[in-house]
Amino acid sequence: MTTDAIPNGKARDLRQWLAHLEASGRLAVIREGVPLEHRLAAIAKRLDGSQAAWFPKPGGHAIPVVSGFVSRRAWIAEAMGVEQAGLLAAFRHAADHPLPWREVEAGSAPCQQVVHNDIDLHALLPIPTHSEHDNGPYITAGLVIARNPVTGVQNVSINRIQVHGKDRMAILMLPRHLLAFYKAAEAQDQPLDVAVVIGADPLTLLASQAITPIDYDELEIAGALHGAPLPVARCLTSEVRVPAHAEIVIEGKLLPKVREPEGPFGEFPKYYSAQENREVIVVEAVTHRSNPIYHTIVPAEMEHLLLGSIPREATMLAHLQRSFPGVLDVHLSVGGVGRYHLFVKFRKQREGEPKNVILGAFGAHYDIKQVIVVDEDVDVHDPQQVEWAVATRFQADRDLVVIAGAQGSVLDPSTTVGHGDEVPPPHLQGIGAKMGLDATRPVAYRGHVFTKVRIPGELEVDLEQEVVRGAAIDWQQALVRT
Predict the structure, then answer these.
(1) What pLDDT does 94 receive?
(2) I need a surface site. Which of 58, 379, 401, 470 has the fewest CB within 10 A?
(3) What φ, ψ does residue 381 adopt, rounded to 5°?
(4) What secondary structure letter does DSSP report for 237?
(5) Cα torsion 458, 464, 465, 468: sign
């Protein structure tokens, strides 16, 4: 890797982005031969948020593994070519102005330089086993791409995939677009063609997590993020289109009316999902670049949380601002696993407005479990400031909103309390309570009782100008010696 800059300010290719991280000291090269079971994930987790980890010959495999290359919010903004403060606006603009992809000739794309038809996934790919009680190796950074069997429009998502056979994989599909496509195909007793793309560039990864209506191809959002149509190639065994510059593509079919055990698996809430019978992908071909790179996401760490939270934040901000112009910013907190706890910065004009904002946020996405609304003098990206607002501006008997028996995240283990050792049936999974906190000050108050303490000029102090470097104090004379 030799490139030390990102042309046009955007990361268009995984290798280009990794080279940029290496040149700026943000890529750690790990010793050769790190075991794929637990050790690789343990090392990547220790480096989480400080450096991406590059593993040569992991477990004796020729294919290297990389992890953690978008594990900081600032890095994602950098890959997009924007300031961190403009991250949500830039993502929202791309989601609202998608660019149709550009197809290259099938077989000519970099991701199809090498083709395997005799499939043994364990031999072909360095697939790690991450957490202590995971039921074997999992693909955690695979973009699952499928076409709506009715309209032909694609969907892109990231799903956990357990590799439990040479050419068989079990997949978790939550009640979203991919599952809707599968059910439509299964109703006709037909398999659903899918591609699992491993080693996509940062912006295509981010686009895959956009919250969109059905029949809205996230690869077009990726093109908008890149500022040019995304090059795609048709799979060799189906009509699915995949990013042409990806590292690895697994082509297969989701089988109708077939279920096999999947799990336990350590998920983003930092708990294990139970073993259940899941849908099955049978693999028909694997294609990849010459000398490919395998990407793995360590579950529940920053790369996992940020890829999910930033697109959700952009969607939540746009949704809330349509009804509440006083909403200035939102943040899905890391402590709320980037999904469940939403902080909202709001310019309040009338009493009661924050409660309406809370209700609007609950309606925007069923994963949201807790909403805290704060004033414009609170930084929602600083949990300490949000906690201060709750400590000094919130009273539970006046400012608390609780909604019982609402649909929430099926991966939230607290929703299963009361079911004993039984896994609740699908129609009862994820049922729980939602809580909103109005941590805003009153619109009218006397004097400075709710004025945030500040010192004039504190933000303008330049310590490089004020602090004398290399000085020492003569303690006998109480004088400074330079």
Answers:
(1) 96
(2) 470
(3) -90, 0
(4) S
(5) positive
CA dihedral 18, 22, 25, 30 (to 10 degrees): 90
Closest CA to 213 of 320, 324, 103, 96: 96
Longest CA–CA separation in the chain, Å: 91
CB contact at 8 A, 181 and 188 = no
Cα–Cα distance, 429 to 125 (Å, whole number) = 34
CB atoms within 10 A of CB 414: 12
The answer to whether the beta carbons of residues 194 and 213 sit under 8 Å apart is no
pLDDT digits (tens, 9 = 90+) for 433-447: 999 999 999 999 999
Question: How far is the CA of 68 from the CAs of 161, 196, 261, 333, 350, in angstroms?
Answer: 19, 19, 29, 19, 44
The tokens for 289 are 């670049």
Q: How far is CA 96 from the centre of its chain?
A: 19
The distance of Cα 26 from the centroid of its chain, to the nearest Å, equals 20
Q: Are 233 and 103 in contact (CB under 8 A)?
A: yes
Residue with tokens 């560039």: 201
Q: How far is CA 374 from the centre of its chain?
A: 25
The amino acid occupying position 166 is K
Relative orientation angle of helices 302-323 and 353-364, to the nearest 10 degrees: 130
- Helix (H/G/I), strand (E/B), else coil: 139: strand
Cα–Cα dist 340/408, whole Å: 9
Render 53-104 in DSSP notation, one character per residue.
Answer: EEESSGGG-SS-EEE-TT-SHHHHHHHHTS-GGGHHHHHHHHHHS----EEP
Neighbours of 472 (CB within 10 A): 10
Residue 363's Cα: distance from chain center in Å?
21
Name 416's Cβ contacts closer than 8 Å, sequence gap at least 6: 423, 424, 429
Low pLDDT (below 50) residues in the chain: 1-4
3-state secondary structure of 183: helix
478: left (phi over 0), alpha (psi -120 to 50) or beta: left
Query: Which DSSP state fits 365?
Result: -
Strand partners, 480: 473
Contact 372, 386 (CB under 8 A): yes
pLDDT of the residue at 138: 97
